[in-house]
């Protein structure tokens, strides 16, 4: 073996060691970033986006039913000749129309959010609890993309002797995908708003309660 080959072998060994250390450091940094920094940073971003989306959904509900809804607009209590409750009849066309209006407006409000910039303190990027919220802000861009659905949910609850309280809620939920340079988490935003209630005097048919008057019951009026 000549002298040049002997000089080459230590050089190759140093290159191999340096390359191994580089790969190990890269893998360590990647794993640390994914397991510690990404969840912390995305937690801050998700909290801000969730607040934006919640406001968008609540605004849709208050805009459509801000003037209030009367119980008689949504339901009618049908009684027999002896004044017993035969049925609680839903005004399906009105319920479906209101649900569509709220869902469409909530969807429009979510679409209007568009590209947003969120400021996160640089200390948060360390993944260390002691440094969270410390240091100058780093701005990241987020794009919420979501779809909204609206349901009416009707609850019946025993409210005393021969009395039943009927409450109607609007249940709006939106599934939002948050696009960021770091990750793309998906969140669910929900809003439940009481829009009408009525105290019904008389026996209400048991099937409205799911067979348990004392525990209350519900009727899902999904359009």
Description:
The model is unreliable at 209-223 (pLDDT under 50). 40% of the residues lie in helices and 35% in strands. It has helices spanning 3-65, 71-74, 92-113, and strands spanning 75-79, 85-90, 116-121, 137-160, 163-179, 186-201, 217-220. The longest helix has 63 residues, at 3-65. The termini are far apart. The radius of gyration is 29 Å and the shape is elongated. With 223 residues, the chain is an alpha+beta fold. The strands form two sheets. Strands 3, 4, 5, 6 and 7 form a five-stranded antiparallel β-sheet that branches. A two-stranded antiparallel sheet has the order 1-2.
Order of helix and strand elements from N to C terminus: HHEEHEEEEE
Overall outline: elongated
Q: Please mark out the parts with pLDDT under 50 across 5 or more consecutive residues, or reply none.
A: 209-223
Task: Provide the gyration radius in Å.
Answer: 29 Å
What's the story with the biggest beta sheet? 5 strands, antiparallel
> In percent, how helical is the residue content?
25-40%
Question: Helix count?
Answer: 3
The overall strand count is: 7
Percent of residues in β-strands: 25-35%
The structure class reads alpha+beta
Mean pLDDT: 75
Our measurement of the CA-to-CA distance between the termini, rounded to an integer number of angstroms, reads 85 Å
């Amino acid at each position: 073996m000549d002298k040049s080959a002997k000089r080459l072998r230590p050089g190759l060994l140093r290159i191999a060691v340096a390359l191994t250390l580089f790969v190990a450091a890269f893998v360590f940094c990647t794993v640390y970033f994914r397991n510690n920094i990404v969840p912390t940073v995305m937690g801050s971003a998700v909290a801000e986006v969730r607040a934006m989306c919640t406001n968008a959904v609540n605004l849709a509900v208050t805009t459509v039913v801000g003037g209030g809804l009367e119980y008689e607009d949504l339901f009618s209590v049908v009684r027999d000749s002896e004044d017993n409750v035969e049925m609680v009849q839903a005004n399906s066309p009105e319920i479906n129309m209101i649900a569509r209006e709220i869902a469409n407006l909530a969807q429009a409000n979510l679409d209007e959010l568009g590209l947003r910039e969120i400021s996160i303190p640089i200390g948060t990027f360390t993944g260390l609890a002691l440094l969270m919220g410390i240091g100058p802000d780093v701005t990241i861009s987020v794009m919420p993309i979501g779809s909204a659905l609206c349901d009416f949910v009707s609850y019946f609850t025993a409210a005393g002797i021969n009395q039943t309280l009927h409450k109607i809620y609007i249940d709006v939920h939106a599934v939002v995908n948050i696009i960021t340079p770091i990750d793309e988490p998906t969140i669910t935003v929900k809003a439940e708003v009481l829009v009408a209630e009525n105290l019904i005097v008389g026996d209400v048919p048991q099937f409205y309660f799911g067979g348990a008057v004392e525990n209350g019951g519900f009727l899902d009026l999904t359009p």
